[in-house]
């Protein structure tokens, strides 16, 4: 996408010369002749750099108008680099301009190489600062969430999974929206990360968002960002998820939990490929690839007027159903050993093996909690089994697919009891997050906060 430069000078000959030099370099140029026009343009559209004269018709020598304009630009958006120009160059004006927020100073008549070098330097610095800010915001918001996955991290020995991985690898080469459906705990988030990692967008950010954990009142702020002072608690600028995922992939997990009012706002962004930061009227381009996931029947929700049909069709250019763990029994031994090895490294413990009888027991269980349930079981076994080989009697499962009750253990802490209860209740409701939250008396956001607390999300 072309970089957009706003030129401000009251001399049309200067503007013509600058436009000729900069257009040849592939820049998109906007030219104005008054300070007021500069501010109006910045309020209405996105600009990557401002190149402005220090003197206009009211005052042609002191640079006062230019200094005031630099300060005004900074108040609108302190991240826009400003380069000032004047034919009345003095050290004092240069120092004052830099103190007001200008990033560089060019004397007229200018040298083209010096001018282009200054502009390109500011673009490079701005890009570096934006990336640092995005990473900082991502670290704050996404701690503990899905990391990028490569093909080696995904266990796929069964025919169903081999077919699924081949399909996703092909789809990754396109830019179409993908909807991943299937029960909770089937690994949809890891598969979304894999698609990103083998796509043309892999060099940019993969940003997962748990839509069920975002309070309705903060939806726009979380997704599109906000400006400092946009509302009572907006004490600093905040980057939204769309900006974090710029040129990368935005993963919308728990899609069915988006309230209807917010679905309309999301649909508008997906249709127009533009969004506004809360507290700003400027439109930003949304260059992101969308992958979404749900464990709900969206067609049923559409019939019940709980989900917008137009949003559904916008998000599922292609829909891929992820099989449950019970449908890929051949993968269970490999997954179980994979998790044991991961947790043994995490907790600095020796990694036990699984006996044939233990593997048979695992394969006979129906896994209502899917891969997530298997992962938690292997983590627990690493601590409860002190043997080099885990046998079938060490695995606390019953034949009808329900984990044996472990709440009677008098050594459990309150947090451990709450975690076990969450796991058991989620398994009872077959992974249905809405029913699980309702049965426990939690709000949707409260339920997801507890999942995150116990690393169950």
Give the SSE map:
Elements: E1 4-8, H1 12-23, E2 28-32, H2 35-44, E3 49-53, H3 64-76, E4 82-86, H4 91-100, E5 104-107, H5 112-141, H6 159-172, E6 178-181, H7 188-197, E7 206-210, H8 219-224, E8 225-226, E9 238-239, H9 241-244, E10 249-253, H10 260-272, E11 274-276, E12 283-285, E13 289-294, H11 298-303, H12 309-315, E14 318-321, H13 332-346, E15 353-354, H14 356-364, H15 370-384, E16 389-390, H16 414-428, H17 433-440, H18 444-453
Parallel strand pairs: 1-2, 1-3, 3-4, 4-5, 6-13, 6-14, 7-10, 10-13, 15-16
Antiparallel strand pairs: 8-9, 11-12
Helix pairs in contact: 2-3, 3-4, 6-7, 13-15, 16-17
Brief descriptors of the model:
Rossmann fold, Helicase, Ruva Protein, domain 3, five-stranded parallel beta sheet, alpha/beta, 14% strand, 16 strands, 457 residues, 3 domains
Folded structure, characterized:
With 457 residues, this protein is α/β, with parallel strands linked by helices. It folds into 3 domains: 4-131, Rossmann fold (3-Layer(aba) Sandwich), CATH 3.40.50; 151-323, P-loop containing nucleotide triphosphate hydrolases (Rossmann fold, 3-Layer(aba) Sandwich), CATH 3.40.50; 326-453, Helicase, Ruva Protein, domain 3 (Orthogonal Bundle). It contains 18 helices and 16 strands. The protein has helices at 12-23, 35-44, 64-76, 91-100, 112-141, 159-172, 188-197, 219-224, 241-244, 260-272, 298-303, 309-315, 332-346, 356-364, 370-384, 414-428, 433-440, 444-453, and strands at 4-8, 28-32, 49-53, 82-86, 104-107, 178-181, 206-210, 225-226, 238-239, 249-253, 274-276, 283-285, 289-294, 318-321, 353-354, 389-390. The strands form 5 sheets. Strands 2-1-3-4-5 form a 5-stranded parallel sheet, sandwiched between helices. Strands 7-10-13-6-14 form a 5-stranded parallel sheet. Strands 8-9 form a two-stranded antiparallel sheet. Helix 3 packs parallel to helix 4, helix 13 (332-346) crosses helix 15 and helix 16 (414-428) crosses helix 17. The protein is elongated. The two termini are 36 Å apart. Mean pLDDT is 85; it is low at 141-152 and 399-405.
